[in-house]
From TrEMBL:
It comes from Candidatus Scybalocola faecigallinarum. Residues 6-125 form the Response regulatory domain. The keyword Cytoplasm does not apply. This is Stage 0 sporulation protein A homolog. The modification 4-aspartylphosphate is found at D62.
Length: 234
């Protein structure tokens, strides 16, 4: 099945837009990906369309633009979109530190080299595919899809499992059944808990501290294996 990818190129230099667009089209052809590319001459023009349609997968943003710069634009996008892949294009290395807060995938220095752009777009697609993975739950007669990257942890009480994501969902099911549906980014900590490794900030012999402030009890004998899983990156 052919993959699809919607990409925005935003730059106030028309020649740079055409240069990056042509390379991105070649990348799509070489990877057998149906690429839809839209171009924007300013951050403002992109945000105007984005307000109505947020279905972009990848943003290729020039940092230095006349009115609003690319980092400011990316901050606005990140407020309600965690999965879009942001790639900055810049003529100056001074700006690189500014992009960490918007979780930029990469910085490409002008002039952009095709081989480097292809590598970064490949990484963006891998991340998009990973972020698209979901748990499917049937709750009150309707199907609920929970993206795996939003799940902080799952725990058991009696015969019920609660999935702690953007909301909490409780279902009558075993933890083992969920474990089979999750990927290597999750760690089974004893009989009653599975935790998403990317949310862990600190581990002691008795507790796991998550980035949202949650503190979870760590069963005896699990500390070493959990540390190994964190070091291996899931």
């Amino acid at each position: 099945m052919e993959k699809n990818c919607r990409i925005a190129v935003c730059d106030d230099a028309p020649e740079d837009i055409q240069y990056v667009k042509a390379m991105t089209q070649r990348w799509g052809q070489s990877r057998q990906i149906a690429v839809q590319i839209e171009t924007f001459p300013s951050a403002e023009s992109f945000l105007f369309q984005y307000a109505e349609d947020k279905s972009f997968d990848i943003l290729l943003l020039d940092i230095e633009m006349a009115a609003m710069d690319g980092v400011t634009m990316a901050r606005q996008v990140r407020r309600d979109n965690e999965t879009v892949q942001i790639i900055f294009i810049t003529g100056y290395s001074d700006y690189i530190a500014e992009g960490y807060e918007v979780e930029a995938l990469h910085y490409l220095m002008k002039p952009v080299h095709e081989e480097k752009l292809f590598q970064v777009l490949d990484r963006a697609m891998q991340k998009l595919e990973k972020d698209a993975r979901c748990l499917n739950l049937e709750l009150s007669g309707e199907m609920v899809r929970i993206p795996l990257y939003t799940i902080r942890y799952l725990d058991v009480y009696k015969n019920y499992v609660t999935i702690h994501a953007r909301e909490d969902y409780t279902v009558k099911r075993t933890l083992g059944a969920f474990e089979e549906e999750l990927d290597s980014g999750f760690f089974r900590a004893g009989r009653s808990m599975i935790v998403n490794l990317k949310y862990i900030r600190r581990v002691t012999k008795k507790e796991v501290y998550l980035s949202d402030g949650t503190v979870l009890p760590l069963p005896r004998g699990v500390y070493e294996a959990l540390n190994r899983a964190i070091i291996n990156g899931g």
